[in-house]
Amino acid sequence: MKTWKHRILSGIAAILIVTAICTACKNGTTNHSHDWGEWVVTKVPTLTEVGEETRICNFDPAHIEKRSIPSLVLNESIDEIIEFLDTQTGGNAASDPIPLIVSIEMGTTTEETSGWQLLLNAIEESGKYVELDLSSCEMDNAVFNPDRTIQTGKDKIVSLVLPSEATEIPGGRNAANSPFSGFTTLESISGMGITSIGQMAFTYDGNESLTEVSFPAVTDIGYGAFANCTGLTKASFPTVTDIGSSAFENCTSLTEISFSAEAVIGMPFTGCSNLTKFNPIGTGPLSTLENGKALVHDNTELVAYPSASGSIVMAAITCIGASAFYGNTSLTKVDFPAVTSIGPGAGTRSFMNCINLTEGNL
What is the torsional sign of CA 261, 264, 269, 270? Predict the structure, then answer.
């Protein structure tokens, strides 16, 4: 999730800001002109504890100013949410969202009178950007379906923590039917209980803002689930056992991904030209070569090498997977002296659309 940023959440916060005192000057007056650095959170506030942030004088690091951050607010009804949002001075831009922690009955999220849709209405009416935490919310079932037919308020949600009760995110037939369409400013999403992510779940036009995902319990990622999420930079799925084809296709900003070494991999990484670090977790048939850039099975089958460029030599590889280099436009020469097979069947996608590949030794 995003690093917590200080925001004025109540009148007392303003008082606390005024009374921040330099620890070196003691009495609140200065013995020299301060040139303060940025405020840095040193203790994150919670629902029960006040936080703290500090800043250091650029002229003299012995001069440190501290101020308190108010504890967070738990909103337990739609009326409380409306009142809370109405009192906030921040949230006017996606870069300055308000932490909105909610504990309500979500109901069946696709129903017009559900707590989820009433919450979206409240966010829309406030006009405020929020970091939405639903982890304490109750649901009628374990499927979190945000309802793609409803756009209200979704463009104001910058980060989203799903209800702990939720175990499944449904899929869609294509990008036009993605359940998360409308979340155009969503930068991060997490779900501690999510075990299944459906096909095309986060694939929709304009999804360039999503940079961070956290689903530590997920076991199944469907076809094209995160395809074209061009802002996604890192992802970790330590318990995943099945990653569908095209799951991360054209995630052009993705540089690092972690998953179980026992996972069954389809063809999920085509077009991930900046993916330079695979991190298989635990023991299993998946491992890496080329300093983590190449994903291999049983040390001999090349599964994926999306960032390959120029001329490469891989003497240990005996089999090249079905989409190992699919769409790679940076590859010019390959040398696989031990290869005896290319992909399953005809293996027609292994080097498909490698338009600058001019020489090969197989």
Answer: positive
| Under 8 Å between Cβ of 68 and 101 | no
Contact status, residue 137 vs residue 100, Cβ threshold 8 Å: no
- Return the domain boundaries, the chain: 11-69, 73-166, 177-283, 285-362
Taking every pair of Cα atoms in the chain, the longest distance, rounded to a whole number of angstroms, is 79
Give 60's pLDDT tier (boundaries 50, 70, 90).
confident
Are 9 and 73 in contact by the 8 Å Cβ rule? The answer is yes
Q: What does the radius of gyration of the chain's CA atoms come to, in whole angstroms?
A: 25
Looking up tokens 């689930």, which residue turns up?
225
pLDDT at residue 204, rounded to an integer: 73
Per-residue b/e over 281-307, b at no fewer than 16 CB within 10 Å?
A: beeebbbbbbeebbbbbeeebbbbbbb
Pair of tokens at residue 45: 């506030």
Closest CA to 326 of 295, 349, 300: 349
Which phi and psi angles does 131 have, rounded to 5°?
-100, 105
Containing 334, the helix (H) or strand (E) segment is strand 331-335
Of the candidates 322, 303, 228, the residue with the CA atom closest to the CA atom of residue 259? 303
State the pairing for strand pair 188-190/51-56.
Answer: unpaired
Average pLDDT over residues 324-335: 93
User: Where does 285-362 sit in CATH, by number?
Assistant: 3.80.10.10
Q: What is the pLDDT of residues 195-247, one digit of tens each?
A: 999 999 998 766 789 999 999 999 999 999 999 999 999 999 999 999 999 99
CB of 16 within 8 A of CB of 107? no
